[in-house]
Amino acid sequence: MAESGSLPTGFSELEVLAVGTVLLVEALTGLCLNSLTILSFCKTPELRTPTHLLVLSLALADTGISLNALVAATSSLLRRWPYGSEGCQALGFQGFLTALGSICSSAAIAWGHYHHYCTRSQLAWNTAVSLVICVWLSSAFWAALPLLGWGHYDYEPLGTCCTLDYSRGDRNFTSFLLTMAFFNFFLPLFITLTSYRFMEQKLRKTGHLQVPALIAKTVPTINAINYALGREVVHRGIWQCLSPQRSELDRAQ
Predict the structure, then answer these.
(1) Neighbours of 184 (CB within 10 A)
(2) Is 239 part of a structural domain of the chain?
(3) What is the pTM of this model?
(4) How many whole angstroms separate alpha carbon 75 and alpha carbon 72?
(5) Which residues form the G-protein coupled receptors family 1 profile domain (predicted)?
(6) How far is it, in rounded angstroms, from Cα 149 to Cα 172?
(7) In whole angstroms, how far apart are CA 223 and each of 24, 31, 172, 216?
(8) Would 46 be classed as within a structural domain?
(9) Is 207 left (phi over 0), alpha (psi -120 to 50) or beta?
């Protein structure tokens, strides 16, 4: 760990500043886009549907990831970690919680799309609420395990952020990593691929193919653009939020 005011070992000042700048841009972009998604859901009645509740869960998770990146950007620009070991554990938990929440919410959205397009029935509120609760309870469970001794949070090589310590090769961390990866990466990936595969087969018959966004789990910005801001109904919701006078006129008409 770099001391106060010193550079992390093995990195030049330019490298640290470059990482901090990139993280800052990504964090601010993700926060802005996902905040618009959350705001439009809260302010626009048309968006308060079970399907959009899953999108809201994803936006909340990606907002958390962006906040995590903002802390990492600040530390990189300061060229030190100013929050101590307890802050490292807290940030590791928060980052892992929201990352798992984002992945599982993406899988839930994929299943919701499959349910809508392949069964031609609307997603029920109790089903959507149950999915969101399961996503966050599961994410909290797996994110808490390193704090309880199975797995471990530690500083990243740059020394300005904290995450799972992937450098450990002992039996404890290996067993945690493999088990966690199965339930939180491979299983959601299987659900996503299977759901979009069935959708593709169903929609091919009608001539309305939809390109599955399987890479949208990488960064919050892509998620916001793909799942929320790329939809016309969300565009209208954001426009109503940003133009209240126009919204009142639409309702009057």
Answers:
(1) 21
(2) no
(3) 0.79
(4) 5
(5) 33-253
(6) 9
(7) 18, 12, 33, 5
(8) yes
(9) left
- Residues 68, 120: Cα–Cα separation, whole Å: 38
Rounded Cα–Cα distance for residues 108 and 106 (Å): 5
Phi/psi at 151 (nearest 5 deg)? 95, 180
Is there a contact between 152 and 168 (Cβ–Cβ < 8 Å)? yes
In a domain, 251, yes or no: no
What residue numbers bound the domain in which 159 lies?
Answer: 13-207
The CA–CA distances, whole Å, from 55 to 21, 29, 131 equal 28, 18, 12
Relative to beta strand 153-155, strand 162-164 is: antiparallel
4: tokens are 């106060």
Work out the number of other CB atoms within 10 angstroms of the CB of residue 127: 16
Q: Could you say which DSSP state residue 9 is in?
A: T
pLDDT tens, residue order, the chain (253 aa): 444 445 566 677 788 888 889 889 989 998 998 898 888 888 888 888 898 899 999 999 999 999 999 999 998 888 888 888 999 999 999 999 999 999 999 999 999 988 888 887 888 999 999 999 999 999 999 999 999 999 999 988 878 888 888 888 789 999 999 999 999 999 999 999 998 888 878 777 654 444 333 333 334 545 555 555 555 545 555 555 556 554 454 444 4
CATH code assigned at 171: 1.20.1070.10
Count up the domains in the chain and report the number.
1
Answer yes or no: is 1 within a domain.
Answer: no
21 - beta bridge partners?
A: none
